[in-house]
Amino acid sequence: MGSITCCRWTGTCWTFHDGLRYEFGLTFDIPATYPVTHPEICVPDLDGKTAKMYRGGKICLTGHFAPLWQRNVPRFGIAHALALGLAPWLAAEVPDLIERGMITPV
After folding, report:
1. Which CATH number belongs to the domain containing residue 41 in this structure?
2. Which chain positions lie within coiled-coil regions (predicted)?
3. Among 6, 7, 13, 60, which one carries the catalytic annotation?
4. 60 annotated active-site
5. CA-to-CA distance for 9 and 28, rounded, in angstroms?
6. Which domain holds residue 34?
7. Consecutive H or E run containing 42
8. pLDDT digits (tens, 9 = 90+) for 33-62
9. Which of 22, 50, 65, 88 could be disulfide-bonded to 61 (CB atoms 3.0-4.6 Å)?
10. Would you say residue 11 lies in a domain?
11. How far apart are CA 19 and CA 22, in angstroms?
12. Domain count, the chain
């Protein structure tokens, strides 16, 4: 479950790899220009562990997800940001982090 305080959302995201569950904290702010601008998704537990991340744990969505979001404004919402932005990012990054021994299963 997540919680909401004003425009900041916090919660937990998780993924499975090789039958093991990996769980991470998740935060994002609803931008003032939403829905024109997508939320910047932050996974603080993985901050500094991968190159595809900005300072503070914000995941890189500019290359693939941002153009998709722009083509689908205003139909896309928060669920789309998580399903089409966060999920593919986790699917790409988590196996590499596991292989390097940077994260452990729950």
Report:
1. 3.10.110.10
2. none
3. 60
4. yes
5. 5
6. 3-99
7. strand 40-42
8. 999 999 999 999 999 999 889 988 999 988
9. 65
10. yes
11. 10
12. 1
CB 53 within 8 A of CB 72: no
pTM of the model: 0.87
How remote is the C-alpha of 27 from its chain's centroid?
8
* 25 within some domain: yes
Exposed, middle or buried, 80 (CB in 10 Å: 0-12/13-18/19+)? Answer: middle
Q: What are phi and psi of 17, to 5 degrees?
A: -145, 125
Q: Which residues contact residue 23 at a Cβ distance below 8 angstroms, ignoring those fewer than 6 apart?
A: 12, 13, 14, 106
Beta strand 40-42 pairing with 20-29: antiparallel
Residue 18 counted as domain residue: yes
CA dist 82 and 13 (Å) reads: 9
- CA angle 77–23–12, rounded 5-degree value: 40
Q: Is residue 105 domain-resident?
A: no
